[in-house]
DNA sequence: TCTGAAAGCACCGCCCT
DNA sequence: AGGGCGGTGCTTTCAGA
């Protein structure tokens, strides 16, 4: 576990709000020089606390307006790696969570319409040794910054 | 729904991999000038396809090593806004999904240890008119870039 | 570890095609 | 819509405290 001080937390919070915020903009806010801020952010990347930067996309604006979680249960012999591998080959799968207990995994999917969802679920059913699925249709979502 | 061409998709893919990639770095890859790339990204922000940029953090490196989904069910009279509001006031809540059917919502939480998880779940139980919870402990996860 | 300065680059607005 | 230029600001490195 990496030790982080208050200034680092401030920097992380600012970068969570806007990952393209400049060092020269953040420097006066944390009361350090631009070079010091850069050194800290570089260090956070080096130590693996910051794993990267990314863009946030509104997929509904691109026509992918339906989201769902699919709970999957497998036969007892199915290895975890297999579960993830079969799921992420599917382009519509956004994330895969392996779970302790029942269900065995939770798959976040994003699709264009209901027919498309049906197709993706059918695909998930066919892969691995799926013994059951339950689909949770997402009506709305909120994510912390 | 916004119309997007292949170059825009390329730009989005590159920015998903690294949200701080520069226009001058992307321009030769898509075969356009720097100015043209900037105009396209500006247009994607303007049209709402790009909602922002953010940093990706490895929370386990900071000691928040346990993740779980909590399925919540409410009394029939609980409005959706109430569900989300009570959940996101809790700092440990990363995301809230409102669901069609049962359960009524799915809450993604991140905590330091099991005792902490217990505390957060107790808090969720107390808020609103929760009639039941089910906790899915996350063993591993994979997210598409 | 921080600051400050200098050199290199990217960004951004403007004009032109 | 894309290309190119010039001014401005940011980034990056290095010396010094």
Automatic annotation (TrEMBL), chains A, B:
**Keywords assigned by UniProt, alphabetized:** DNA-binding, Transcription, Transcription regulation
Top-level taxon of origin? Bacteria
Q: What is the designated name of this protein? A: Lrp/AsnC family transcriptional regulator
Q: What PROSITE patterns does its record include?
A: HTH_ASNC_1, HTH_ASNC_2
Where along the sequence do coiled-coil regions lie? Answer: none
Domain named HTH asnC-type is located at 4-65
Q: Which organism is it from?
A: Streptomyces ramulosus
InterPro entries (alphabetical): ArsR-like_HTH, AsnC-type_HTH_dom, Dimeric_a/b-barrel, Tscrpt_reg_AsnC-like, Tscrpt_reg_AsnC/Lrp_C, Tscrpt_reg_HTH_AsnC-type_CS, WH-like_DNA-bd_sf, WH_DNA-bd_sf
């Amino acid at each position: 576990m990496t030790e982080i001080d208050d200034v680092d937390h401030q920097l992380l919070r600012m970068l969570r709000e806007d990952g393209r915020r400049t060092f020269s903009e953040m420097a006066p806010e944390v009361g350090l020089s631009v070079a010091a801020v850069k050194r800290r952010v570089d260090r956070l990347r080096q130590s693996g606390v910051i794993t990267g930067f990314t863009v946030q996309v509104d997929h509904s604006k691109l026509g992918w307006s339906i989201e769902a979680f699919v709970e999957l249960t497998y036969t007892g012999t199915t290895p975890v790696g297999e579960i993830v591998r079969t799921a992420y080959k599917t382009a519509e799968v956004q994330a895969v969570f392996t779970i302790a207990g029942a269900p065995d995994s939770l798959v976040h999917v994003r699709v264009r319409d209901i027919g498309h969802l049906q197709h993706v679920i059918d695909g998930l059913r066919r892969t691995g040794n799926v013994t059951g699925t339950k689909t949770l249709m997402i009506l709305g979502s909120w994510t912390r910054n």
